Amino acid sequence: MSCPEELQSLEAFWQMKRGNRDLPGRCDFPPHELRPWLGNIGIVAVERGEDETRFRVVLSGTQLDSYRGHGITGQYIDEICRNIASTTPYYHDCVARREPVSFLHDNSPNSAIYTRMGKLLLPLSENGITVDRILVAIYPLSANDACSPAEQTFAIAG
User: What is the pTM of this model?
Assistant: First the structure.
């Protein structure tokens, strides 16, 4: 399970939407149902090429943009995150496993804020098989967000 609490509730919501299916689709998440998380979520498209798979932000919440200090819609994750080697593997893992992936993320010193963030990646699929989108949620950790010992195993990504 993820920390902070907002990530836990979003993951539970994703599980409910998934139901008995392998994966929910983007259409299962209308904006009005995502209201509690709207500013802190984004949608990332999975773009498969012959040589590589890249991840492009197609929708970014206002809080996500403020964490970076500028809009990130249209940019690729490997362009946004300075420390590519420690961030993109989580996206690849989410696609390969077709399961939620969560981790702790030290926000880049080049961002508008520098703080420890909880990050949750939720796979989405239009055909129910192939992950074609990832619902991403990012929340700063506060003093009240002491993760349980099991959650301390999250990796630190840049």
Answer: 0.84
